[in-house]
Amino acid sequence: MTLLKTTDGSPAQQLPWLQIVVVMVAACALPFFLSNYHVFQASMVLSTAIALVGLNILTGYSGQISLGHGAFLAIGAYTTAILMDKFDVPYWATIPVAGLVCLIAGFLFGLPALKLEGHYLALATFALAVALPQLLKFRHLESWTGGVQGIVILKPDPPITSLLGLTLNSDRWLYFVALFVTVAMYWFAWNLLRGRIGRALIAIRDQPTAAALMGIDTSLYKSLAFGVSALFTGVAGSLSAILVAFVAPDSFTVFLSITLMVGMVVGGLTSLAGALYGAAFVQFVPNLADQISKAAPWAIFGTLLIVLMIVLPGGISGGLNLLWSKLGRRSVSV
Amino acid sequence: METFIHQVVAGIATGGVYASLALALVMIYQSTHHINFAQGEIAMFATYLAWTLINAGLPYWVAFFGTVILAFSLGVLIQRVIIRPVENAPVLNVVVVFIGLLVILNSMAGWIFTYTIKAFPSPFPKEPPFGLSFISSHELGSIGVTLVLLVMLYSFFRFTPLGLAMRAAAQNPVSSRLVGIRVGWMLALGWGLAAVLGSIAGMMIAPVVFLEPNMMSGVLLYAFAAALVGGIDSPGGAVLGGFLVGILENLLGAYVIGTELKLSVALVLIVTVLTIRPAGLFGKVIVTRV
Amino acid sequence: MASLLEVDGLYAGYGATEVVHDLSLRIEEGTITTLLGANGAGKTTTLRALCGMIRTRGSIRFAGEAIDQLATEDIVRRGVAHVPDGRGTFGSLTTEENLRLGGYTRRDRRAAAADQERMYDYFPRLRERRQQQAGTMSGGEQQMLAIARALMLRPRLLLMDEPSFGLAPLIVREIFSIMKTINENDRVTILLVEQNAAMALKLASHAYLLETGRLVLAGAASDLSNDEAVRRSYLGY
Description:
Low-confidence stretches of chain A: 1-9
Oligomer: heterotrimer
Largest interface: A-B, 49 and 47 residues
CATH architecture of chain A: Orthogonal Bundle
Mean pLDDT of chain B: 89
Number of strands of chain B: 0
Shape of chain B: globular
Strand order of the largest sheet of chain A: 1-4
Distance between the termini of chain A: 9 Å
Strand content of chain B: under 5%
């Protein structure tokens, strides 16, 4: 899919339809050619991509830094787990609920946080990320959160076991669920960003004083951006809980938030397609690097963060942009 | 009553550790306007270096000063190689670099020293000092070391030409260049000193929390809270904030919420200070001209 | 014999914009030269370029040595002092600390301390305010402190950017008379950027006139101030 920037970094008004159709066909065919485990990994990539889109909205478009978005993954995941485990809510119904809970939580966290700029917001969200696992293990909440052991949920069965002669097992079915949710969220994001809200966010990011003088309620929009990005991340968390069939406090350490940041930086800010690259990167690199040593994935992530910031701040999509423009093609961005 | 005194005293001891780390954070913030998210990991890594020296057979205090020198070099190296290229980059880029540094140090420690929890020795005797019941020798020694360190630093900055030059470089780099001060090296020196502060803080707290790669994350959170409470650009405030936060943590832990939610307390403190009075108790309130 | 400062084909600016174009000038040791021009003519930019504070193209030689690629602190250590616009005093440090910083690079500590006393002789008002925070002093006192701090370097060349800005006429006269003194007694060469053209031309022996970043006139100060056409069109009096 071509992706690059229009001159002001806003999303293109026209979608590259041909490329999207090709990608969608490939995506639908994918699970029938891969092993179950790889299908699961692909689903996880999709879920992570949704979270990265959320982070993109916050950081790339709204210019706010969050080191604690793992917290919203946790809230989304735990919402789903608690609803499924304690209230027998069907898995697909928990996804929008998780999104809504995180929208509210994000908006509320965004309200005091909106006063904070740059590194102060980073600090507050960092504190959130570090404090969260301990909070999830808290004795008095154990009856809800399952304490240190967490909550195990049942992996849903597919409603139909075969489609057009192709077998549809749990993993494949969940992949299509993830694909559907991803497409829906991407569509939502694209509409959000190319409309008034997106333009307002870009204005706030680039020239906050001028934006305020033009009558844009910067506080409201910034809180809204935080809430919306939390919504996306919450949906991603909910999806991942369904895929993994398990939630526990130690899955949601500060390193999870850092993983999201790595994905965003590698994929490229303000790039919806970049979210996919970043998600694939953080899903597969640890698997490969783990074979070298337990510490290797993080050493690689850390080095990459530093090197990219110095050498290629635009990430993969930024790099592709440069390549495209060097080859003489005009830019268009998603 | 005795428990109360013990809690306060223990709070002062950990408070000293928070004060040292908070001071390191403030030093770097004052000179660069950046928050060093990797401060805890630098301290942790330095403590591992100390552990290595001690395990190699060196007597404690030799290892202590050896670590101080190594930490100083590490701080200078990090500033020159990693931080300098992004000095004037946008805030997001800088934050990402700091996180990258955090992650590298954490994984390097895990790789070189493994993730098994290790014991770290205290140079102070196990018996309580002078038969007192409300303070342990390590707590007393820790407070002593912290105080000596803070006094030495204060004297350095207040009375020596180099300390004056560093203060000037932090406040006004342009004017400092105009009197011939090599601002870049002043920044590197600042990082070196911050790393030294961190290493001493790490060595004082490691006997209590045990040595493992993630040992400093909670401590760092409290140091952030302390620096914010005192005022992120006020060294004196950071020190005072450290002791206050240490005492507060212990009293809350003993009498109000138990020890399980300590990190959430730090989080609440941080968000509260940032929302109500970002300048802290002693920092400067900045009014931006539009 | 080479001039103390030789500038040839200097282009200087901020970011992508060039503000000074193809500037060439010569400053002889022991003289007072003034750089005149309207707001935005590029006078401050020129001084900043000489100190390595901004990007430049072209050649700058000080005492025979090329300094255009050097960092500010290295240029300063070779004997160029700059009193910037806005004074650049260390606001939260005391007068005494500001002066000590001026002497930071001096190797001879005792000579530096003696010079500090000499500064208090030149500027008695500063002696009264030794321990006062520099930022709390009046504009005139801060200007004197900025000059004193620059002199602590024992510079060969002193660059001054609009020392009269925002100051009462009496103080301005004091400062100009001190400039004359240090030029005569301490053999300090001065390059003075000024809006107050009349006073500057009375003090200086040479003058350069900038307009939108280009040199339009150069010559003896007396020639410029005697030329009525020049005075009226460029200097406004």
